[in-house]
Design a protein that fits this description.
- The structure is a single chain.
- The chain has 407 residues and is α/β, with parallel strands linked by helices.
- It has 18 helices and ten strands.
- Helix content is 48%, strand content 10%.
- It has an eight-stranded mixed beta sheet with strand order 5-4-3-6-7-8-9-10, sandwiched between helices.
- Helix 9 runs parallel beside helix 13, helix 10 runs antiparallel to helix 12 and helix 15 crosses helix 17.
- The termini are far apart.
Length: 407
């Protein structure tokens, strides 16, 4: 009987169109779109990575149960994801900067600085000791802002066990390398492990409060994405899966820049019509860039693209929208940065995004293809006032709504 069970598990884990068996639960895997079940040929998209799913291990090597998860990063989103995992009954370790913060979390189950009114599950344990946090982790969740990721990983990489998968919840483009998180992680931690990327409309406070949330996890290793989905999914946290890593990353980066533009529109008092038009046109630029880089249109129109854009542009908890709102009210980027306690990823990403587009996207008049993305960068760099930029968009040359689809 034991041999039959092992055979069934092996067969199911080796098929891309199977029922997920993570945590011994036969629940259908939720792929975000039907066409995500096959990897279309694309010269810009790499082939699927070798699976490091715990279900793909040899039958002679028992899976490392009980599963243990470590969250790197004690900011709002790190706290939120630690709460999600801990509520599923999984031992969860939060790696924070100082022992003082760790003691506060362990004793009072609250972070002394972030979301101080939110009580964390008692199964979340915090530590500042990297070896203690990482040495026995089954999965590691990375929730450190993009611009600090490379420096942070340099301090912890020697403590991360070989082959342990990494789930990244960071969104944006690194200003120094112009790379996405997938590029940074592979450069810092190597290509011999599997990586996954979580995105979607997901404010940290609402997650902690148990408000219904839906996200997508993308990975070239779809079995890893399925395992993580089963690990994290619950009644108040729906998790879908995808293989379109670049699509999820483009959506997560560009939506923050669009949110800054939306905030400026609101700060200038231009009304709902103007903001709705701007956000829609911004999503068009996201789609155009994503397709050029190899993303599927279905991903851009899904949770990690348009979905996350709506939440970030119209949600009251959005730091990027708030940054843009204050710009529209007349504050300078320097004044706003000095008063913020958390990172608005879209600010640095806006500059990096334009540089990346100029470097990787070939063609005529890129500024006409991405006017909102280019305009936000100009405003952030102090070369243009918010009102000038938005007036320029309204006076844009008349043409087809989607000129690149004229044929």
């Amino acid at each position: 009987m034991r041999g039959v069970i092992l055979l069934l598990v092996t067969l199911m884990a080796s098929s891309p169109d199977v029922y997920n068996v993570a945590a011994f639960s036969f629940v259908p895997s939720r792929v975000s779109t039907r066409d995500d079940r096959s990897l279309f040929h694309n010269p810009r998209r790499s082939a699927p990575a070798k699976s490091h799913s715990i279900l793909s291990m040899k039958a002679t090597s028992p899976p490392p149960y009980p599963v243990r998860v470590t969250v790197m990063g004690g900011g709002n989103f790190g706290l939120a994801l630690a709460s999600v995992v801990a509520k599923r009954g999984v031992p969860t370790t939060l790696l924070v900067r100082t022992e003082e913060v760790a003691e506060e979390i362990n004793e009072n189950h609250r972070h002394p600085r972030y979301m101080t009114d939110i009580a964390l599950p008692r199964t979340v344990r915090a530590t500042a000791n990297k070896k203690t946090a990482l040495s026995d982790a089954t999965y590691i969740i990375h929730a450190v802002p993009v611009q600090y990721t490379r420096e942070y990983l340099a301090t912890v990489k020697d403590e991360i066990p070989a082959n342990v998968p990494i789930l990244s919840a960071s969104k944006g483009i690194e200003t120094s390398s112009l790379g996405f998180m997938a590029d940074i992680l592979k450069e810092c931690l190597g290509e011999d492990r599997s990586y996954a990327f979580l995105s979607g409309p997901s404010f940290a406070r609402e997650i902690c409060e148990g408000v219904a949330t839906a996200v997508v996890i993308a990975s070239e290793d779809l079995m890893l994405a399925d395992d993580l989905a089963e690990l994290m999914a619950g009644e108040d946290f729906a998790v879908f899966t995808s293989r379109d890593v670049i699509g999820v990353e483009v959506g997560g980066a560009v939506k923050n820049v669009i949110a800054i533009a939306a905030g400026m529109c609101e700060g200038l008092g231009l009304g709902t019509n103007a903001m709705s038009g701007l956000v829609t046109r911004g999503c068009g630029e996201m789609r155009r860039l994503g397709i050029y880089l190899g993303a599927r249109p279905s991903t851009i129109s899904g949770l990690s693209g348009v979905g996350d854009t709506f939440g970030t542009c119209f949600g009251p908890l959005s730091r990027n929208r708030q940054f843009g709102y204050r710009l529209g009210k007349g504050e300078t980027p320097e004044e706003i940065r000095a008063s913020m306690t958390e990172v608005a990823e879209g600010v640095d990403t806006s500059i990096a995004l334009v540089k990346m587009i100029k470097k990787r996207c070939k063609g005529y008049r890129l500024d006409l293809k991405y006017p909102i993305l280019f305009g936000v960068a100009e405003i952030i760099e102090g070369n243009m006032k918010p009102l000038e930029g938005l007036k320029g968009l309204m006076n844009f040359p008349t043409r087809m709504e989607n000129y690149d689809e004229r044929f």
